Structure formats: C-alpha cells, structure tokens
Amino acid sequence: PEDEAIAVVYGYNYARLVRSTRNPSNGAYKLIVGHDPRPTGEAIIRSQIRGALRRAEEEGKTIEIIYLGVITTPLFESAIRTFNADGGVMTTGSHTPLKHNGWKYGTANEEPAGKKSDAALLQGGAVLGAEQMGRVIIGTKAFIKRVDRGRINLKALMTKADKIDIDAILNSPDENDRYEKALDGYIKEIEKFLGD
C-alpha cells in the first residue's frame, strides 16, 4: 500500500510537470506507458497511471494513455516519438536485483510550449533530465509534506484514483496494434540510423 501510494503521488506530479511544460491545442495529453517483465511492473504502472489521470481530472484535462505492455527502454523512448506523445512512464529496475523496481519518465517530442531556443528541437523519448526530474521529486516531497500536515487527504486521493478503470486501459483491444506501430517506428529509426 505505501509503495502504491508513492507511485500514485509520483504519477500525479509527473502529470503536473507535463501540464506545466506542454500545451496541446486540444487540451488532451498523450502518454506512452509500459513496463519490463518484473513481477511488480504492472502494479507500479497501474499506480502511475492512476496518479496521472487523477491530476488531469482535477485540472479538467484528459490524458490519452497508450499502453504498450512489456517493452524495452529503447522501444519506450522510440514510441514517444512514433506517437508524438507528451511524455511517458516505464517501470523498470534496469540492472538491479529482480525484487527491486522503479520507473523512468520520458520527455516530449518537441520543445515545451513558450520555451524557444536556438537549439534544435529536443529529442523526444529521452529520460527526463536532472532539472525536470528534480521538479517531479520536489513536487512529490512538497505533496507528502502537505499530507503529513493534514492539508491533503491522501486517503481521499487514493480512493478517487482507485475508481479509475485501469483495466479498460491495460486491456484495450488496440494494445496489439499500438505495440506493432511502436515496433514499426523503432525499426524505421534503426534503419534510418544505419542508413538503410
């Protein structure tokens, strides 16, 4: 339960970061979601999704979740570009023992709205940089302090988040088509890189 609550709160604050750096014209955000095959991967991703969707609901926004199931990190990163997503989350413990797990957040496929630079557009799908991840961590710590001080009712947030039908997202009939599209996009990127 504690791990679940922490993942919900991180998902909530990641959605806040996405909203603060992106401004989709239709008000809907798109996130790529996947996990490695560790036993806890799907449970953590469920909590991350619930947190992100709860944050969007509070703001009157929508988030389209593109769930790809079990994927690799390179496929996750490529899928953000393929679907022109606003970011994404992947649960993975990388090279840690099987009993451990964690998550990575991905960046959007273009520069954030309102932030112009002379540099080329940001490469979407990269893991969040230190500054952006720092904002998620600081937001999460501040959120937890407000819970500790009684300013936020975590139980109420969790109850509302629990009402979100995650099974409908994870068991979408489009999952296989989305996975194939992501895989096709990844293969095209490799071919382009290799000059084929």
Structure notes:
The chain has 196 residues and is of the alpha/beta class. The chain is 52% helix and 13% strand. The protein contains seven helices and four strands, in the order αβαβαββαααα. It has a four-stranded mixed beta sheet with strand order 2-1-3-4, with helices on both faces. α2 links the parallel β1 (28-35) and β2 (62-70). α1 packs across α2 (41-58). The longest helix has 20 residues, at 2-21. The N and C termini lie far apart (49 Å).
Q: What keyword list fits this structure?
A:
single chain; 7 helices; 196 residues; globular; 4-stranded mixed β-sheet; 52% helix
Count of helical segments?
Answer: 7
Proportion of residues in β-strands: 5-15%
Number of strands: 4
| Measured distance between first and last alpha carbons | 49 Å
- Mean pLDDT rating: 84
Evaluate the radius of gyration: 17 Å
Listing every helix as H and every strand as E from the N terminus to the C terminus, the arrangement reads HEHEHEEHHHH
Helix content: 40-55%
Identify low-pLDDT runs.
116-122
Overall shape: it is globular
Spatial strand sequence of the major β-sheet: 2-1-3-4
How would you classify the helix and strand content by structural class?
A: alpha/beta
Could you describe the largest sheet, including whether it forms a barrel?
4 strands, mixed
